[in-house]
From TrEMBL:
This is Glycerophosphodiester phosphodiesterase. It comes from the Bacteria. GO terms for biological process: lipid metabolic process. PANTHER family: GLYCEROPHOSPHODIESTER PHOSPHODIESTERASE, CYTOPLASMIC, GLYCEROPHOSPHORYL DIESTER PHOSPHODIESTERASE. GO terms for molecular function: phosphoric diester hydrolase activity. It comes from Pseudobacillus wudalianchiensis. Residues 35-275 form the GP-PDE domain.
Length: 275
């Protein structure tokens, strides 16, 4: 078990014993659960994914975290976009890595979701950190980091510059499907929680989970491979489990019944129906 997890557990125990302890939030159907509500690419069911409109909507809907996908422009700017090309979500074409920030920032990243979002831009990582830190948690996914050598150092630098490399009240988590990148991120930022993403059952064996637990705090699977046994195995290794991507009430209800720690959803209201 990672040292920072042990520290976190001892802090949690202290808080539990404190007379000031209060439920963080009454989640779901009035029943108390400590399950985080993570707005996937922002509240992307209602707004254009990975834009300020989507992140503002997640804040308005009182999600606990926004999930963002980070990539890098040709000239080294960290930008928030999911696909490795701009074709699906903007009015441009081409690979993110082949376009300068000036070219990326000129694109319309809103109209694909509806005319009312025309003019939404591809945000920068710095802009998102500055606008949302302390207001909502930020789950940072390094998207295809193998395309961007050195992106881990750039992300670490931006977090350190803002003292977000030792998050306290400001909730920051870093995750990726690329495990080597996450080992590197853990070495660069030992106090920031790390997550591994997968949709492969081959990553749920006892040995695989044990290997992840050497550097990861979160095991984050697609909900199709979540079972009660998997949740128990992840917890017994001292990790948490956040699952994705909820796009129906049935999927949210399934994950409630599995007792995962966080639900990553396009629709935050499926996880917390008060909003
Ligand atoms: O946060 C989990 C989820 O974002 C992983 O898949 O493709 O939506 O980035 P994807
Ligand atoms: Ca993502």
């Amino acid at each position: 078990m990672k040292k920072k997890t042990l520290l976190g557990m001892s802090l949690a125990f202290t808080l539990l014993c404190s007379p000031l302890q209060q439920p963080i939030a009454a989640k779901t159907t009035g029943e108390f659960r400590q399950m985080d509500n993570v707005a996937h690419r922002g509240a992307s069911g209602y707004t254009p994914e990975n834009t300020i409109a989507a992140f503002d909507k997640a804040v308005e809907m009182k999600a606990d975290y926004i999930e963002i996908d980070v990539q890098r422009s040709k000239d080294g700017k960290l930008v928030i976009i999911h696909d490795t090309t701009v074709d699906r979500t903007t009015d441009g074409t081409g690979r993110v890595k082949d376009l300068t920030y000036e070219q990326l920032s000129a694109l319309d990243a809103g109209s694909f979701k509806g005319e009312q979002f025309k003019g939404e831009k591809i945000p920068t990582f710095e802009e998102v950190l500055d606008r949302y830190r302390g207001k909502i948690g930020i789950l940072i996914e390094l998207k295809s980091p193998e395309l961007y050598p050195g992106i881990e150092e750039s992300i670490a630098q931006q977090l350190k510059k803002r003292n977000l490399d030792r998050p306290q009240n400001e909730k920051i988590i870093i995750q990726s499907f690329n495990f080597e990148s996450m080992k590197k991120m853990d070495a660069l930022l030992p106090k920031v929680p790390i997550g591994v993403l997968t949709s492969s059952k081959s990553h749920t064996t006892e040995q695989a989970l044990k290997d992840f637990s050497a550097y990861a705090d979160y095991f984050n699977p697609s909900y199709g491979i979540v079972t009660k046994d998997l949740v128990n195995d992840v917890h017994s290794l001292g990790m948490k489990i956040s699952s994705w991507t909820v796009r129906s009430q049935e999927a949210a209800d399934f994950l409630f019944s599995m007792d995962v720690d966080a639900i990553i959803t396009d629709y935050p209201d499926y996880v917390d129906p008060r909003n």
